[in-house]
Amino acid sequence: GDWYNAGTFSASSTQILTFTATSTGFVINNGSSSFQNVVFNGVNGGWSFTTSTASTTISGDLTMTTGTLSGTATTTVNGGDVTGNGTINLTGGTFTLSGTGYFGGTTNWTFYKLTFSGIEDIITATNTNNTVVTTSEIPFLLFLISSPHQTHLGK
């Protein structure tokens, strides 16, 4: 469902916040607080982060189990992992992944602007069904080292 933070939300370092829905149109407004780990789960579920806050920060990881994350909000994931077989379709804003970890799943993802933060970062892109990541702007030099099931992305 929807999430609206009108005050301060304090997440513990091990917290996992799971959004579950079977319909679309749900909006998440984190206010000035960040989330720790976020999971989207729900066949035909649809969520978007609000653009009324400066940005959404996830201190841990983002998992797209099923459903669709869409919208135009700027989003930062600092835990290093963005995984799952749900859909990501962001038509605006900047999506930033920071840290070492895994990126991708079996579903094609679309980003308006995708960045990998930190010169030392190595991202292992799980590529079980030839996942395609589409972005309208790639502001970094990217090299690929492919194996049958994973693609290593780096700068």
How would you describe what is shown here?
This protein has 155 residues and is mainly β. Helix content is 0%, strand content 49%. It is built from no helices and 18 strands. The strands form three sheets. An eight-stranded mixed beta sheet has the order 2-4-7-10-13-15-18-17, with no helix packed on it. A hairpin with a 3-residue loop joins strand 17 and strand 18. The protein is globular, with a radius of gyration of 15 Å. The C terminus is likely disordered.
Brief summary of the model shown:
The protein has 155 residues and is an all-beta fold. Helices cover 0% and strands 49% of the residues.
Core attributes:
single chain, 155 residues, mainly beta, 8-stranded mixed sheet, 5-stranded parallel sheet, globular, disordered C terminus
- Model regions low in confidence, pLDDT < 50 over at least 5 residues: 139-155
Helix content: under 10%
Strand order of the largest sheet: 2-4-7-10-13-15-18-17
Radius of gyration: 15 Å
End-to-end separation in angstroms reads 37 Å
Shape descriptor:
globular
Q: Kindly estimate the percentage of residues that lie in beta strands according to DSSP.
A: over 45%
Write the element-wise H/E pattern from the N-terminal end onward: EEEEEEEEEEEEEEEEEE
Q: Main β-sheet: number of strands, strand sense, barrel status?
A: 8 strands, mixed
Q: How many helical stretches?
A: 0
Record field, number of beta strands: 18
- Overall average residue pLDDT: 80
Structural class: mainly beta
